[in-house]
Please model this.
Amino acid sequence: MRAVAIGLTPLSREEVVAVAREGAPVELTTEALKAVTTARAHVDALAASERPVYGVSTGFGALAVKYIPDERRAALQRSLVRSHAAGAGPEVEREVVRALTLLRLRTLTTGHTGVRPTTVRAMADLLNAGIAPVVHEYGSLGCSGDLAPLSSIALALTGEGEVRDGHGRLRPAAEALADAGLEPIELGEKEGLALINGTDGMLGMLVLALADLRRLLDTADLTAAMSVESLLGTDRVFAEDLQQLRPHPGQAESARRMRRFLAGSEIVASHRGPDCTRVQDAYSLRCAPQVHGAARDTMAHAETVADRELAAVVDNPVVLADGRVESNGNFHGAPLAYVLDFLAIAVADVASMAERRTDRLLDVARSHGLPPFLADDPGVDSGHMIAHYTQASVVAELKRLAVPASVDSIPTSAMQEDHVSMGWAAARKLRRAIDGLTTVLAVELLTAARALDLRAPLAPAPATAAALAELRRHVPGPGPDRHLAPELAEAGELIRSGTALRAAETCGEES
Model:
């Protein structure tokens, strides 16, 4: 796999995903190492002076007024990392730990943090060895950076704490480093602070969420089209000239995709004539592009924020080009926290609309000729009745996860840190929300596919038929009740992997 270069230019979102999720290696550029060396010379000069400099020769946070003599500064950095690696709760996912490590490494290589070249090499080696320090769920307030999570990374670099090796085994850090041929580092002035004072966990989870959400919103257009088709809805409301009357780009994109997915459908054509008495479809069908499109536009804003943050240098204090070391507030996670919360709202609403379409497919009074709950023998069989219960329970959870974390500041550090972003919490709940949306769309996919089968002999559109055929490779068609949980899992994996979506997009035609 091609290595991702870590240098003076920002990483792309795609590069972050490649390293975090796909295990791509990293390599440090010559320009980055030169910048690191130059910045370190400034820190060394300040360390040798008698003037107190925050992070170099003073304590931290509310203890910043205490001067630390030269012989105690290594202990200062070591104590900082040990005391701040105070996370609790379950381990966070490996891909999050790798993203966290990568993004901190990129900031360290900008030449604005004052760490030594040996330190950035050690962090790159940690990534390339596949070693993932154990990072816990709780411990970050999203201000002064993701302190506890990043401290777990720094602790592992010094040979302390626990890690997961390349095979996923839980091991002492010193043992895993030794087996990988790596030496623990001893932190110099400012290095402990530079390693832990960033928004990298929030940003990494945002980047991963955006990659997942783009696929899920594309899939939501597909499952919505399948529901429109199987409920004998119309595609006329998705016409381009109608969408142009309200020029939101996300709406136009979702409508275009739904037109393409429905093009050539015998089912839609069967009720398009003048004898059709239905005037308007329900909102969950007719307004799908408006809701999915609003989510797309929200995602576009979040992508802009993520790209800006990928270009940022987040540390406190920072080393400037003229050698000054200045305190600042760039570690505050508000820009990330807001969009993480905003995305959770969009996810909940897209899921809520999908649940309404599923409910309509199962209700004999509103499904236009389909059997109750799509059951094979209603009464004996329950069909997808309880699959909808599962979907509804997830939607309820998504609405709870949509409550903003970023409005809930708790003052800490003896009121020195009197306003925090809670961006890490916003990111953690967004990850759960994305898992939930995957399940919700899996239920709609299963249910709409079953309904399309029941519309035979009328044929669905080529695109929706391709998605249906892909699903039928893993899940049988209509029949007596079966154990549904494995089928929901199969549908979820088809959505998570993008397999069902690719099948439909390959066959889709623009109307």
